[in-house]
Write a structure and sequence with these properties.
Elements (H helix, E strand, L loop, with lengths): L4 H24 L3 E5 L5 E2 L8 E2 L3 H14 L3 E3 L9 H9 L6 E6 L6 H14 L4 E5 L5 H6 L6 H21 L1 E5 L4 E6 L12 E4 L3 H8 L4 E5 L3 H17 L5 E10 L3 H11 L5 H14 L3 H10 L7 E3 L2 E2 L12 E4 L1 H14 L1 E7 L3 H16 L3 H4 L10 E3 L9 E3 L4
Parallel strand pairs: 1-4, 1-15, 4-5, 5-6, 6-9, 9-10, 10-11, 11-14, 11-15
Antiparallel strand pairs: 2-3, 7-8, 12-13, 13-14, 16-17
Length: about 425
């Protein structure tokens, strides 16, 4: 069947209209915004010991309480030999927060499915249903070997599939018996169910074919590191197609660092400062470790964005890969003014991203900057989050330095 020129024009307009409708639907949704708890330490400059902060529980508590008050929905706690244990840390922080959710890691093989079921259920109960669970299969064979896991990359996902079969049955039904290639559970029991039914939500991030195939059968939210939008779009379509074959749908989130200032120029200057004390030898050593000590496909994709070069760090408009010169895992930051960064986030929203897990250095100060500068541009109203907390009677009050004389009241509108 042939189409006339007017038919082609009509079809194009219809497709454009559908794209616009999709854009409006996606970007009108409020982003679910989480922050990061730096349980291996924090700092002002990458690649140096200057102005570093250890992961003392008092400092981590400061960050958690700040983001709870500022309106972030939750926090990610990382996992690994260099991090404080995520379940224990989350339990400690949950007692000092009110609404904050805790995205904690389950690493299949470091403990039995039954033990992790008890950990997850207990933390969900003591936090009153504020647990999110992050499946981390692991990308360092050497570190995994230290935990007693001696499996090749793809085989780790086959193992994880059996692990979570038992784990999910325990959380949802309280009992499981299973005999597989890797996991054997005989009459396993969970005495107390979680608050969230049938179980807390499962998150996962992994770029390999084996990881994606595993994830779409089980998880609720698929996470990607901050790659350029075109690469994220490709990955999302791949995951959606794999999920559809299983008769499932998953939602999507992105892990990004943020450098937000009042102007684009200030933001880029802050990005330069962050790596201003980072020398070339430290970069070389870090990049070599990523190649020799990791079999993570996602890590290879991150490293390929910049190739270890300082002169090619803006890998997409306002997407800066300087963090990834020395940091494993998430290595990109959105850099710019509130309006600029909000526009970039909307591009990811249009692709299907609903959740953002952010961070910045140092994490306490940057949590405030992101909330105070970026949140209003995203429609995340801090004042509503603070349940109507008032600072003044009637006339508008400006900050006048906080002296004993108080602040100044402005009767006219400016």
């Amino acid at each position: 069947m042939s189409l006339s020129g007017s038919d082609i024009g009509s079809g194009s307009r219809q497709r454009a209209s559908r794209r616009q409708e999709h854009f409006m639907t996606a970007t009108e949704k409020t982003i679910d915004f989480l922050w990061f708890i730096p349980t291996s330490g924090d700092g002002t400059y990458l690649g140096t010991t200057e102005l570093n902060r250890g992961p003392e529980i008092g400092y981590l508590q400061q960050i958690a309480q700040a983001v709870d008050r500022l309106g972030y929905s939750g926090v990610l706690l990382p996992t690994g030999v260099s991090c404080e244990e995520s379940f224990v840390t989350a339990a400690a922080l949950s007692a000092h927060t009110q609404k904050l959710k805790f995205l904690v890691a389950i690493r299949p093989g470091t403990a039995s499915p039954a033990y992790y079921a008890r950990l997850a259920s207990t933390l969900d109960r003591v936090s009153n249903g504020r647990v999110l669970l992050n499946i981390v299969v692991g990308g360092s064979p050497a570190e995994l070997a230290g935990d007693g896991i001696h499996l090749e990359h793809d085989e780790r996902y086959a193992h994880a599939d059996e692990f979570f079969h038992v784990w999910e049955e325990l959380l949802e039904k309280g009992a499981s018996t299973f005999e597989g290639k890797y996991i054997k559970a005989t009459n396993a029991r969970l005495g107390l169910p979680p608050v969230q039914a049938p179980r807390p939500p499962l998150y996962f991030g992994g770029s390999s074919d084996a990881g994606i195939d595993f994830s779409v059968g089980r998880v609720d939210k698929y996470l990607t590191w901050g790659e350029p939008p075109a690469q994220v779009a490709e990955k999302i379509e791949k995951v959606r197609a794999a999920a559809a074959k299983r008769g499932r749908e998953v939602s999507f989130g992105i892990r990004l660092h943020f450098i937000v200032r009042q102007t684009d120029e200030e933001a880029w200057a802050a990005a330069d400062r962050l790596i201003s004390k980072l020398d070339d030898e430290t970069i070389r050593e870090a990049q070599e470790q990523f190649v020799t000590q990791s079999d993570s496909v996602g890590q290879k994709r991150m490293a390929a964005l910049h190739g270890g070069r300082r002169d090619k760090l803006e890998v997409s408009p306002n997407l800066w890969a300087g963090v990834g010169l020395v940091r494993a895992g998430a290595g990109t930051a959105l850099v710019g003014s509130p309006k600029t960064v909000a526009a970039r986030l909307r591009e990811y929203q249009e692709l299907g991203i609903e959740t953002v897990i952010g961070s910045g250095y140092p994490h306490l100060e940057e949590a405030y900057r992101v909330a105070e500068l970026l949140f209003p541009e995203l429609g995340l109203n801090q004042e509503q989050q603070r349940a109507g907390f008032r600072n003044e009677f009637g006339a508008k009050q400006i900050f006048a330095g906080g002296s004993h004389g108080g602040n100044l009241k402005v009767v006219s509108g400016s």
